[in-house]
């Protein structure tokens, strides 16, 4: 049986699902499905981020932090690592500089 999957998953997304020995922690079918979801989410957030930038929040950095904060909630349906990847991808799609993000563990400890 051939693998007819046509979408190239970038190394940055594979890193979300790779352990210290560079092996996938999930089956490739799950990684593919999660990639498609995260890529769609980043694309979906483009217009919202642009609107915020022109109407309410002048700082690209602040907008990206707010997006990540929203994605870090349980209701978002993405993991913390996926949330960070989505926002980095969003910054790339918008051609914005991506800010450094605090480690998720650090955020949990502050709460």
UniProtKB/TrEMBL annotation:
| Top-level taxon of origin | Bacteria
Name of the protein described by the UniProt record: ATPase with chaperone activity
Q: Which organism is it from?
A: Variovorax humicola
Show the taxonomic lineage: Bacteria, Pseudomonadati, Pseudomonadota, Betaproteobacteria, Burkholderiales
């Amino acid at each position: 049986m051939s693998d007819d999957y046509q979408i190239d998953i970038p190394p940055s997304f594979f890193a979300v699902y790779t352990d210290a020995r560079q092996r996938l922690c999930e089956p490739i079918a799950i990684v593919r499905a999660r990639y498609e979801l995260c890529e769609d989410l980043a694309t979906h957030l483009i217009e919202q981020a642009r609107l915020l930038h022109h109407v309410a929040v002048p700082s690209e950095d602040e907008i990206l932090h707010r997006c990540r904060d929203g994605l870090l909630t349980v209701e978002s349906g993405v993991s913390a690592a996926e949330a960070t990847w989505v926002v980095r991808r969003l910054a790339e799609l918008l051609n914005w500089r991506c800010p450094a993000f605090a480690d998720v563990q650090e955020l949990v400890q502050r709460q």
